[in-house]
């Protein structure tokens, strides 16, 4: 793929053979990040449909966790702001 930048491979000596990138979404379906997995440990030449499905399900939980952390941070800031006003 001509879009692949092999600069990191050249610096580290690592050989990237496969990459699977997928979005991390929040509750509303907005993209809040991107995750990737690189190379399979069984020397496969491609990621299977099952790999894609498992990764997608994992990223659903990542999105929930990230959004919950963001909401918690906002609630802590609101709590602190309300404490100053008391």
Automatic annotation (TrEMBL):
Pfam families: GAF
Phylogenetic classification of the source organism: Eukaryota, Metazoa, Ecdysozoa, Arthropoda, Hexapoda
Protein name, UniProt field: GAF domain-containing protein
InterPro entries the UniProt entry points to: GAF, GAF-like_dom_sf
Positions of the GAF domain: 1-65
Highest rank taxon of the organism: Eukaryota
SUPFAM superfamilies on file: GAF domain-like (SSF55781)
């Amino acid at each position: 793929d001509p879009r692949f930048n092999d600069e990191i491979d050249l610096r580290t000596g690592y050989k990237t053979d496969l990459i699977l990138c997928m979005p991390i979404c929040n509750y509303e379906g907005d993209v809040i990040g991107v995750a990737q997995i690189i190379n399979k440990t069984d020397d496969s030449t491609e990621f299977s449909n099952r790999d894609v499905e498992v990764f997608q399900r994992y990223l659903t939980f990542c999105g929930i966790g990230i959004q919950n952390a963001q909401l918690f941070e906002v609630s802590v800031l609101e709590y602190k702001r309300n404490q100053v006003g008391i």
